[in-house]
Amino acid sequence: xxxxxxxxxxxxxxxxxxIFAVLNVAPVEVNYLFGTxxxxxxxxxxxxTLMGIVIAGSIGIxxxxxxxRRMQQKHAGTSMxxxxxxxxxxDKENTVETVGERRRSR
Length: 106
Description:
Elements: H1 2-23, E1 27-31, E2 36-40, H2 41-83, E3 95-98, E4 101-104
Helix pairs in contact: 1-2
């Protein structure tokens, strides 16, 4: 259900940005480090929105990767403490199946 709300919010955001962009088609001057160019405002709005989505998505993916890495390190440390050896041991009792991956419970 939560995913459906995110999808609905994304669709509404896309519609609002598209309407706003289409209403603003006047040419604007864009200044670069190496010169200037004249572009329609609709392209500037859409490009800015796209770059914001890419940057926010990249930060989100980085955070997820770091959290997974910390969880794996923490789990590897706890399994080594249980066995008293330097190599982790698989614990089949605490394994939880999820969609697309296998993950151990705490």
